[in-house]
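Duplicate of #3305? Posting structure anyway:
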């Protein structure tokens, strides 16, 4: 029997799905992925030589948003049950089912009951965040308490929020996202020249911001800060992955109306974030809410670039302010602009932050350790 099937409702490439791809790619043979819909993450897993499972009929559930009302959730219940049956059939060769998202938790819990196999919830969210409806939060905690043998949280912040929301603390294990440092090229003059050519950038310093275009990732905070940063340009990498196209359009309008269009470059979703990061002068993180983990922060450190991040949530577990990066308060464009100016004006500080950042990230967030920690948590399910 194979060891673990990781189940995701979406096959888009968000942070949670990239985590899942990474641990399956670097973990033991007996780990595989299951998606409720076809998509880029599922295709990437297939390209790695795995045989991901795609459940037909899952697309309807993927469309339910996390702030959905109780009525919508109840309406989705029929779909959940038939999907759970399909999952139970597809997962019959696996010892443990690992739900990689909240929606996957509901389906996987029922499937694990049908199959009488242990369930693990891999928690990638701070579930006390107001973005989650109270109904979704209560249902998720109830399902976890009733059915999950272990809850694997992606940071202490996510773990603490789960416990604060009524989750059983003795079942929680923290497993950080991990990376292969060798897959993250270091910043260099060549990388910088290649980046400028690729995206048509000038010689001015480039601030890189990476992530989904969604209000809480705070791309608008960077645009506001840029008004106080003449002679500096921004490269915004990412797209509206989960239907937030209106915000993406707002950002473009904001750049136009504030006279920033010349200095702001929207690159859309890119598959080679590590290579792009190596070419920027600074990696920024601007989330307005506490980040459950913050993969882009670790990736910026691994690129050997100075990182300026918003404090809160998992980011405070990654960055030591003034040592491995700089932290600024959320939604504070003025503080962000001050921090950017400080680093750009002081090359010695920039190199010191970049060097300690890379060393710390490579040591603390290695994919091999992540796979070991996950394997240990899975072993505890019996
Ligand atoms: N990412 C990507 N292409 C893009 C933008 C982002 O591959 O155009 C990746 C990024 O490198 C990171 C992940 O998406 O690994 C985002 O993870 P994070 O934890 O920062 O945020 P989440 O999406 O989980 O909220």
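Output from current build:
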């Amino acid at each position: 029997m194979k060891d673990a099937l990781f189940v995701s409702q979406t096959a888009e490439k968000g942070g949670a799905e990239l985590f899942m791809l990474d641990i399956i790619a670097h973990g033991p043979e007996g780990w595989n992925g299951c998606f409720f819909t076809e998509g880029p993450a599922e295709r990437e897993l297939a390209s790695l030589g795995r045989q991901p499972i795609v459940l037909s009929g899952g697309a309807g559930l993927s469309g339910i948003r996390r702030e959905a009302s109780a009525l919508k959730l109840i309406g989705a219940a029929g779909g959940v049950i038939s999907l759970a049956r399909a999952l139970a059939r597809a997962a019959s060769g696996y010892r443990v089912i690992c739900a990689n998202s909240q929606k996957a938790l509901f389906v996987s819990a029922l499937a694990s009951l049908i199959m009488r196999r242990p369930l693990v919830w891999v928690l990638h969210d701070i579930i006390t965040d107001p973005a989650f409806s109270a109904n979704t939060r209560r249902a998720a905690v109830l399902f976890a308490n009733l059915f999950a043998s272990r809850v694997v949280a992606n940071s202490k912040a996510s773990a603490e929020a789960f416990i604060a929301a009524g989750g059983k603390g003795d079942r929680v294990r923290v497993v950080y996202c991990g990376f292969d440092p060798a897959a993250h090229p270091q910043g260099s003059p060549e990388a910088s020249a290649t980046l400028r050519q690729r995206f048509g950038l000038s010689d001015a310093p480039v601030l890189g911001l990476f992530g989904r275009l969604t209000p809480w990732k705070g791309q608008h905070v960077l645009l506001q800060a840029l008004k106080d940063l003449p002679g500096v340009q921004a490269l915004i990498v990412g797209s509206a992955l989960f239907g937030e196209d209106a915000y993406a359009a707002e950002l473009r309008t904001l750049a136009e109306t504030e006279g920033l269009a010349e200095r702001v470059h929207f690159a859309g979703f890119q598959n080679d974030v590590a290579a792009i990061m190596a070419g920027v002068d600074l990696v920024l993180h601007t989330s307005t809410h506490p980040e459950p983990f913050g993969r882009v922060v670790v990736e910026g450190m691994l690129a050997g670039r100075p990182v300026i991040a918003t404090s809160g949530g998992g980011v405070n577990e990654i960055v030591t302010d003034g040592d491995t990066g700089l932290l600024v308060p959320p939604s504070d464009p003025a503080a962000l602009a001050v921090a950017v100016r400080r680093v750009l004006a002081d090359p010695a500080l920039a190199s010191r932050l970049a060097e300690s950042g890379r060393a710390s990230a490579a040591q603390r967030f290695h994919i091999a350790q992540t796979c070991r920690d996950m394997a240990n948590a899975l072993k505890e399910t019996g």
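Confirmed duplicate; merging threads. The chain is about 45% helix and 15% strand. The chain has two domains: 2-178+366-379, 181-364.
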